[in-house]
């Protein structure tokens, strides 16, 4: 990076001469070093999937979840610092509760994404704070209309049909672009999301990981929840079989060479 070491990275409120805010870029690097999180918006719902890296065999299974619920119709998946994720989820819950208290209706996806983006961006303006080292994927259903947004550490938020964050985001985006999301059912999307997470997982560096899957769709009555256990098991089996077939294909290519 140019300008590093010249003091322009000491404060989040200072631009470098070439117009960069290094503290925001450092926050993005924290996201890029985290496990992969993806979101798929299909015709009848939204699926969230996360590769949760386990740093110790002593950790309790299914604890320290990276997919949370911010409102009954709002799902959050994260890549980055877990402590920052909890803070943002709490903020999103407050926003959803205040909106419902004022207007007596659930907060729309665009409004909650806008408010969370503005909140995150505010932490890039003052020298007394630091940016959030997390990218969050926000999935909702607005009147049976699935919506997917991603909020970056800079505060930028955009609506997506499919998105990814974390260390495997480039490979995940490539796989997502191959899918016909408009014709994919939410059940098929769960399987494809599991397959993508397994395909981008680097077993040489991070041997232990847990897969998290959630959805918000017509089948869940517009409520964000983790996928049923039978579908989860089916998706894992589908992903493992696809991963094994890819490994066998690579070995055959090596043998031919």
Description:
The strands form two sheets. Strands 8-1-2-9-10 form a five-stranded antiparallel beta sheet, with helices on one face. A five-stranded antiparallel beta sheet has the order 3-4-5-6-7. The protein is globular and about 50 Å long. The protein has a single domain, classed as Aminohydrolase, N-terminal nucleophile (Ntn) domain (Glutamine Phosphoribosylpyrophosphate, subunit 1, domain 1, 4-Layer Sandwich), CATH 3.60.20.10. With 257 residues, it is an alpha+beta fold. The model has no long low-confidence stretch (mean pLDDT 91). The protein has helices spanning 22-32, 82-103, 109-122, 169-177, 186-200, 229-256, and strands at 37-42, 45-53, 67-71, 74-80, 134-142, 145-151, 157-159, 162-165, 209-217, 225-226. 39% of the residues lie in helices and 24% in strands.
Chain-wise SSE layout:
Elements: H1 22-32, E1 37-42, E2 45-53, E3 67-71, E4 74-80, H2 82-103, H3 109-122, E5 134-142, E6 145-151, E7 157-159, E8 162-165, H4 169-177, H5 186-200, E9 209-217, E10 225-226, H6 229-256
Antiparallel strand pairs: 1-2, 1-8, 2-9, 3-4, 4-5, 5-6, 6-7, 9-10
Helix pairs in contact: 2-3, 4-5, 5-6
Which CATH class applies here? Alpha Beta
How many β-strands, per DSSP? 10
Order of secondary-structure elements:
HEEEEHHEEEEHHEEH
- Please state the second-level CATH architecture: 4-Layer Sandwich
Largest sheet: number of strands, sense, barrel closure: 5 strands, antiparallel
- Domain tally: 1
Question: What percentage of residues falls in helices of 4 or more residues?
Answer: 25-40%
- Strand order within the widest sheet? 8-1-2-9-10
Average of the residue pLDDT scores: 91
* Number of separate helices: 6
CATH topology term: Glutamine Phosphoribosylpyrophosphate, subunit 1, domain 1
Low-confidence stretches: none
| Rough outline | globular
How far the N terminus sits from the C terminus, by CA atoms, comes to 40 Å
Oligomer: single chain
Structural class: alpha+beta
Taking Cα atoms only, what radius of gyration do you get, to the nearest Å?
19 Å
GO biological process, one term: ubiquitin-dependent protein catabolic process
GO molecular function, one term: hydrolase activity
Subunit structure: The 26S proteasome consists of a 20S proteasome core and two 19S regulatory subunits.
Pfam families: Proteasome (PF00227), Proteasome_A_N (PF10584)
